[in-house]
Design a protein that fits this description.
The chain has 1 helix and 4 strands; from the N terminus they run E-E-E-H-E. It is mostly loops and about 130 residues long.
């Protein structure tokens, strides 16, 4: 709920749990990289209404439930993992500003993400393959 926080601080490499870390930080616009040790990002950026570009999500993350819920200005994010083995329930629900193809995922998992777009709270056209 830090509504005056604009730039998130660097996340230390030993952090594993970011659950609700920036919940309702309505002024947040900039996010540093997320460490490869992070596993839980549930509701991490939920309600960050000024956030336009999400961080690169590492393959270590296994819980993104409601991670970007109601991030109305979010245009895109890169998820560097497969769909299965991660809780993505409502991860993008209420993200009305998402661009078509704005959620970048590994090409080998693109169809899995598209098939499960409804569970994630978005539509299949919001997904595209990460290109080198």
């Amino acid at each position: 709920g830090c509504n005056k926080l604009i730039t998130a601080p660097t996340i230390p490499d030993n952090v594993k749990n970011m659950k609700e870390c920036f919940l309702n930080c309505t002024g947040l616009t900039t996010i540093p990289g997320i460490s490869n040790s992070v596993t839980d990002m549930e509701s991490c950026f939920r309600g960050c209404t000024e956030l336009t570009i999400g961080p690169n999500i590492p393959s270590s993350v296994t819980n993104m439930k409601e991670c970007f819920l109601n991030c109305t200005k979010l245009k895109g994010v890169k998820i560097n993992r497969g769909y299965y083995g991660c809780n993505f329930a409502n991860a993008f629900q209420g993200c009305s500003g998402l661009n078509a193809g704005g959620i970048k995922v590994p090409s080998i998992y693109l169809q899995n993400y598209k098939d499960n777009a409804g569970t994630m709270g978005t539509s299949a056209n919001k997904f595209s393959a990460i290109t080198p």
